[in-house]
Amino acid sequence: MGNVLTRREFLKVGSAGLGFGFTASALRAQESKETVKPLRCGFIGVGGRGTALLRNVLQFQDVEIVAICDITPPNLQRALDLVEKARGKRPDAWGDGPYDYRNLLRRDYLDCLVIATPCNWHSIMYVEALNADMHFYGEKPLAITARGVKWIQTTREQHPEVVVQIGFQWGANRARAHVIRRVQEGAIGELIEGRFHRYNRWGSLGRWLDDRRLSGDWMLEQAVHEFNLMWWVTQTHPLAAYTVGRAHVVAPDNPKRDVTDFYTTILEYPAGLIVHYAHGWINPPGFTGMSTRFIGTKGALDVLGNYLQLRGQKEPLKGEGPGGDTREHLRNFFDAVRAGEPKMVYCGIENGVAASYVGLLIRKALDEKRRVTFEEMLNDPQDLPPLPAA
Fold it and tell me: Which of 200, 185, 219, 140 lies closest to 301, judged by CA?
């Protein structure tokens, strides 16, 4: 019974284990007693994901949407209409060309931005936002080349005061933060194995998501969510990866679709930890689903399930604390902007770096059909993604 963890011991988590959630709540409670000046927010990219983020932000009465940029006219008009209907005032609009977003970076009336564009634009937009000292919530991945990640890291070092939240919304769940903290304190012993998969329904999402030059492929556009969970638990990068997979299964007659339909990888971590990850779009009904689990010498962790299961103990130990997803992740970002505290965010640039590096490592191993080390991935000469001429 030496592995049994009592409920009292399990709940012994300080404020560091629960993140800044209570600090932010206290901040808002204090401000509610005073006159709060709304934060003025701009949006760059209001397609599917950007519109979902916009709808969430419109729930916050202390945030005004004052400017929107999107080069697709129907997207831009829909977003402008949504804000006008909800708030009675139409935001400023830009969208005449691919670099029109720079107009928002020049607006001195903006406090922050939400950026939700195709992945090939992330590195340049995030670098330019940092250089403009503009706080931003940016969708994942951080970048789709190692050079892009390094560019952002270097720029970040020059602008440490900018608040940046990367869109890993699973990081907003405080019950999840609680169980992960317990694992890091040794609750399930030494980590031996990770059992991860994401099996999407059979199909193709189309649009820019089918173009590897724009999305970076699924291990960057989508799977970085899981890779951020791996980083959150282990706080270390993998040493190497070996990956196999296939393309042209879901839509074999579409020559423009060059993303990977299925791949599986083995990630080698320090101290002997091995993580298996499988990801794909070739699953009929009943064969979809996810797994985000770590196995240790004393028990196991279900990361998305927010619980531990210990050897010798029948009932799982569930995480304590409020839940959270996209809305709470955005709320955390705005609270950090208002507080002027970059370290307050749940998933900052370091999360984006770590998760993107895993995706890049897996992609390189897949393309080169061999075991690839982390150092080889870091030194990959692949250039920044091609963009239209300014």
Answer: 185
**pLDDT for position 20:** 41
Q: What is the pTM of this model?
A: 0.92
Query: In the numeric block, which tokens belong to residue 155?
Result: 């720029």
166 and 177 part of one domain: no
Q: Are residues 280 and 263 in the same domain?
A: yes
What is the pLDDT at residue 205? 86
Q: Which residues of the chain have pLDDT under 70?
A: 1-34
Local structure of 42: helix, strand or coil: strand
Query: How far apart, in whole angstroms, are the C-alpha atoms of residue 59 and residue 179?
Result: 29
Question: What's the confidence (pLDDT) of residue 49?
Answer: 97
Residue 135, beta-bridge partner list: 112
pLDDT of res. 32: 52
Return the H-helix or E-strand segment holding 25.
helix 21-32
Q: Give the C-alpha separation, 348 to 333, whole Å.
A: 10
**One domain, residues 142 and 185:** no
Extract the tokens encoding 241: 């990866």
341/357 same-domain check? no
- State the Cα–Cα distance between residues 48 and 76, nearest whole angstrom: 11
Residue with tokens 């330019």: 128
Same domain, 197 and 307: yes
Q: What is the dihedral of CA 218, 220, 222, 224, to 10 degrees?
A: 140
Q: How far apart are the first and last CA of the chain?
A: 66
**Count of structural domains within the chain:** 2
For β-strands 240-247 and 372-373, DSSP reports them as antiparallel
Q: Residue 207's domain is classified under what CATH number?
A: 3.30.360.10
CB of 363 closer than 8 Å to CB of 215:
no
- Amino acid 243 reads T
DSSP H or E segment with residue 50 = helix 48-57
CB-based contacts of 249, cutoff 8 Å, min separation 6 = 261, 262, 282
The helix (run of H) or strand (run of E) holding residue 350 is helix 349-368
CA distance 284 to 349: 36
Q: E strands within 105-163?
A: 112-115, 135-138
Based on the domain organization, do 215 and 143 belong to the same domain?
no
Evaluate whether 146 touches 377 at the Cβ level (below 8 Å): yes
Query: To which H or E segment does residue 330 belong?
Result: helix 326-339
